[in-house]
Specification:
The complex is a heterodimer of chains A (291) and B (346).
Chain A (H helix, E strand, L loop, with lengths): L2 H22 L29 H11 L10 H17 L4 H11 L1 H12 L2 H9 L10 H5 L6 H12 L15 H21 L5 H15 L2 H9 L6 H21 L16 H8 L10
Helix pairs in contact in A: 3-4, 4-11, 5-6, 5-9, 8-9, 10-11, 10-12
Chain B lengths: L27 H14 L2 H19 L6 E4 L2 E4 H15 L3 H8 L3 H13 L6 E5 L5 H24 L5 H13 L6 E6 L2 H14 L5 E5 L12 E7 L8 H11 E12 L5 H23 L2 H13 L3 H10 L3 E8 L4 E7 L2
Helix pairs in contact in B: 4-10, 10-11
The chains are: A mainly alpha (291), B alpha/beta (346).
Chain lengths: 291, 346
């Protein structure tokens, strides 16, 4: 395109866009003359006072970050992030960070219902209070490896070794604007690998889709639902057939039958056998298929 | 230091409104529309972020920076810290730098760079130093321009001297293949090795090899002798330099007498409506693009904040004059989103 054509085009879009911008302007600092009227959690900030000192400014910044790694975002940014990350996750399935971002930006109501489920269960409530994290530094991997075969801990470490994954590669939470919900989604991510173990699914595309179906029924997170519905797009016909006839019905049934998987303090259950843990949660026995 | 100390007392006409001169009262209508829509569109918490972001802009603009301190976007950091942080930013964005430029500016950055080259109008034989030239955009355009100028010159010569002897004709073709016409040379200097790496790969891929060299160097302390280059350019790099005045002095030093200084940089928008749209786009869309395409929100947040912190056109013009350049002018592109400052060492 020549320069003159480009500048003409640019001018036209500029005119359209500026009229649009008059309505959406408030996000830029210079127009913000409005105050937040209702006081809430820590809303001690004064009205736009131009004589605020630098210390107050730094405090506000530090204060506004609700947890380390938190990036506050506006609703417009969340919408753009959801759309963009959904597209990018489908376009490039290796972008796991995009799946994470999609989960964070779309999951607010599902996370709230998950948090409530956890609050109403004694073990879940304990997890919310103690906030355990599953990390290599806190896991005693050699101890777990020494456990007898068939125990949850042994099978989990076997899963990590054979699939060559590590619990430390979970993305930290960035876009959830509530500190407790940020923990809930972090716990969900860390429990994901444990789900693989309990469901007996490897980390290939087929296994991931099955786990997504289970999680979609369990948690209701839009990201899981999208992953469950669009994930199979990249599977071969044979795998798709196995998926639809055997694996998905089992996963959905297990998801419905099982109680909330976030309500189990897995760190205290390493010695329990996988079978008994499955029974306790309510996961049905996996079909005898090599995935 | 390049720190916008502008406030209401700064004399500004309507054409050169800067980001920090927002104390001028906006029309009441727009403000109330803004108030209503902002309450409707944004949650309370995001309001606080706006206030803090806005206040950061104001407070940063109003309070004087402490000794040895400077700005990194909207944060205040020590001077050594700034250098390191900027290095890390460009180290992490290097691989996706070009694709991000295209998506953030919708390809318009190519036009800006083309306009810079047209303003430079180099002839075959020019020695160019491109500082903060990283991925080589300006250098490659320079080579293309010089080559096309040379071809044009040959055509003119052949047109007017139709009976040129075969020895002269073959000599002129030979010169074209072995090196850049007229002995033109471009040196790309950047402080960041990753950016230079990406630039070298691009050069190989696109087939540029002659007359091009890649040097690691700091704009505040260039590893070149005095009076060496005909043209010095710095495109979208000078706002990342910790001591802008030192960079300008170095530019003066390495240029030959008669040499030209050209700086292409983001600047302050002079049109209030476009400025509003630009701010909306910068703060809302660009970090999101950074997260989605490059997986890096913070670097692109730094980018848009550093643009706001850079001095306005007239202030930067004064800084260029302070370094000793004469006939300093600036030219706004896209309503001042970008400006080209030009000065001569005479």
């Amino acid at each position: 395109m020549s320069t003159s054509q480009f500048s003409q085009f640019y001018r036209c879009t500029g005119i359209l866009a500026t009229s649009f911008a008059v309505l959406l302007c408030p996000t830029c600092p210079k127009l913000c003359h409005c105050t937040s009227s209702t006081p809430g959690r820590g809303d001690q900030l004064p009205h736009t006072d131009l004589t605020v000192t630098a210390e107050e400014h730094v405090d506000e910044e530090r204060y506004y970050q609700l947890y380390p790694g938190h990036i506050p975002t506006s609703p417009l940014q969340k919408a753009l992030l959801s759309a963009g990350s959904a597209f990018m996750a489908l376009y490039n399935p290796y972008r796991h960070d995009m799946v994470a971002v999609l989960g964070e930006t779309t999951g607010s109501s599902a996370l709230r219902s998950l948090r409530d489920k956890m609050k109403h269960d004694p073990e879940g409530y304990q997890i919310l209070q103690e906030r355990p994290r599953i990390r290599l530094s806190t896991l005693d991997v050699t101890g777990l490896r020494g456990l007898p075969d068939g125990t949850f801990g042994r099978e989990y470490v076997r899963f990590l070794d054979s699939n060559r994954v590590s619990p430390d590669t979970r993305m930290p939470v960035k876009f959830v604007d509530d500190e407790e919900l940020a923990y809930v989604i972090q716990r969900y991510r860390e429990v994901h690998d444990l789900m693989h173990t309990l469901l007996g699914m490897p980390t290939n595309m087929l296994g991931e889709v099955v786990v997504k179906w289970f999680e979609a029924v369990q948690t209701g997170l839009p990201m899981c639902i999208l992953g469950a519905v669009f994930g199979p797009v990249r599977l071969s016909a044979r795998k798709l057939q196995i998926l639809t006839t055997e694996l998905v019905p089992w996963a959905v049934q297990s998801g419905r039958n099982a109680s909330c998987v976030l309500n189990f303090y897995y760190e205290n259950r390493w010695e329990q056998t996988v079978e008994s843990l499955r029974e306790e949660i309510g996961i049905l026995h996996p079909p005898a298929i090599c995935v | 230091m390049g720190f916008p100390l502008a406030g209401p007392e700064a004399s500004r006409d309507s054409e050169t409104r800067s980001a920090s001169a927002k104390f001028t009262p906006l029309p009441k209508m727009a403000a109330s529309i803004g108030a209503v829509t902002s309450r409707a569109l944004h949650s309370r918490r995001y309001h606080r972020k706006l206030l803090s972001g806005g206040r950061g802009l104001f407070s940063g603009a109003r309070r004087l920076v402490a000794e040895g301190e400077t700005h990194f976007g909207f944060q205040n950091v020590s001077e050594t810290e700034k250098g390191e942080k900027v290095y890390h930013v460009f180290e992490s964005v290097a691989k996706k730098y070009d694709i991000m430029n295209d998506s953030m500016s919708l390809g318009i950055h190519r036009l800006w760079k083309d306009i810079l080259l047209h303003q430079m109008n180099p002839y075959p034989g020019t020695q160019l130093l491109d500082v903060a030239g990283g991925t080589g955009d300006i250098a490659f355009r320079f080579i293309n321009y010089v080559r096309s100028q040379w071809e044009h010159q040959i055509k003119q010569k052949l047109k007017s001297h139709q009976n040129l002897s075969w020895e002269e004709i073959s000599k002129s073709y030979q010169e074209e293949e072995l090196k850049l016409p007229g002995g033109s040379q471009v040196v790309v200097c950047d402080i960041n090795k990753e950016m230079l790496k990406v630039g070298k790969q691009k050069a190989q891929h696109l087939g540029y090899s002659e007359g091009l060299s890649w040097v690691v160097g700091n704009a505040e302390e260039l590893p070149f002798n005095d009076n060496k280059f005909d043209v010095y350019t710095i495109a979208f790099g000078i706002r990342n330099v910790t001591h802008i005045d030192q960079a300008l002095q170095e530019a003066y030093r390495v240029l030959k007498p008669g040499g030209r200084f050209l700086c292409l940089e983001f600047s302050q928008v002079n049109n209030p409506l476009i400025s509003r749209l630009y701010d909306l786009y910068s703060f809302q869309v660009i970090p999101v693009l950074g997260e989605i395409i490059a997986g890096d929100w913070k670097s692109y947040q730094y980018l848009v904040e550093s643009i706001r912190r850079f001095p306005a056109q007239d202030e930067f013009k004064a800084m260029v004059e302070d370094a000793g350049f004469l006939k300093v002018e600036y030219r706004n592109l896209t309503s001042g989103i970008v400006a080209i400052h030009s000065g001569f060492k005479l």
